[in-house]
Amino acid sequence: MRLTNIAQIAGLIVLAAVTGFGLWQTSSGAAEDPVVIPAPAADLPQPGDSAVAVFAGGCFWGVQGVFQHVTGVKNAISGYAGGSAETAHYQLVGRGDTGHAEAVEITYDPSVVSYGELLQIFFSVAHNPTQLNYQGPDHGPQYRTAIFVQSPEERRIAEAYIAQLDTAGVYPEKIVTTLEPLTQFYAAEQYHQDYLTLNPTQPYIVYNDLPKVAALEHLFPEHWRAEPALVGML
Questions:
Q1: Phi, psi of 129 (to 5 degrees)
Q2: What's the CA angle centered on 45, arms 40 and 51, to 5 degrees?
Q3: How far apart are CA 125 and CA 112, in angstroms?
Q4: What is residue 208's predicted lDDT score, i.e. its pLDDT?
């Protein structure tokens, strides 16, 4: 299906998703409804035109699909983080005992979109950070919410933002996102890459993930890009 049709589907979802309270919820009432949240009070200054962040927030199809539509993101790859190379395979990760989380490696231009802005999108529309070891219909530690930090500065910014959001009470429950050191990121199998774009009518994608992309466009128009940064185009 062409990208224009994805936008049409997403637009229909958004029309059904607006509530009278200024928040966004999917018409299905799914457990990963986006939330309007403040920007980070502190951000991470980064020189140069390329940096990498690794986030885990449930099934990587939706997280990848969201960040592929963020202006300044050069690439977003679905994969695994938290375990060893020997177990970085979909069938093994799915057992839930490998230490891996389904994660997305985001390469971005910090002069266009900052680390803090990526965190805001991650916590607002990409997943629900209050769900412990599950996201929506997907259960197990491989679907945990996690930020894989690569420096003390990243950890400091992420910790401060989590504390800021918890203090503000923007969620009904406390954030359970873990901060874990990134030892290695392993790209997932090719059939997982660009899955949202290639399968926009798949029921799981329609129900769980297209609403996230739609919410990104409407809650963060300044960060929205219509054409996704696809792995298959590299």
A1: -80, 5
A2: 100
A3: 19
A4: 96
Measured distance CA(169)–CA(110) in Å, rounded? 28
Q: Which amino acid is at 174?
A: K
For the beta carbon of residue 199, count every other beta carbon within 10 angstroms: 15
50: which residues sit within 8 A by CB, 6+ positions away? 74, 107, 108, 109, 110
Catalogue the active-site residues: 59
This prediction has a pTM of 0.89
What does the alpha-carbon distance between residue 13 and residue 18 come to, in Å, rounded to a whole number?
9
Domains of the chain as residue ranges with CATH: 37-197 (3.30.1060.10)
Rounded distance between C-alpha atoms, residue 192 and residue 132, angstroms: 24
**Six-digit token string for 32:** 């990963």
Q: Which two tokens stand for residue 29?
A: 């009432």
Who's near 226: CB < 8 A, 6+ residues apart?
Answer: 3, 7, 69
Question: How many whole angstroms separate alpha carbon 173 and alpha carbon 37?
Answer: 14
E-strand ranges in 88-226 read: 101-108, 134-135, 138-139, 145-149, 178-181, 185-187
Report strand pairing: 73-81 vs 178-181. unpaired
Provide the token pair at 146.
């996690």
Q: Which of 32, 72, 58 is nearest to 145 (CA)?
A: 58
pLDDT tens digits, 77-126? 999 999 999 999 999 999 999 999 999 999 999 999 999 999 999 999 99
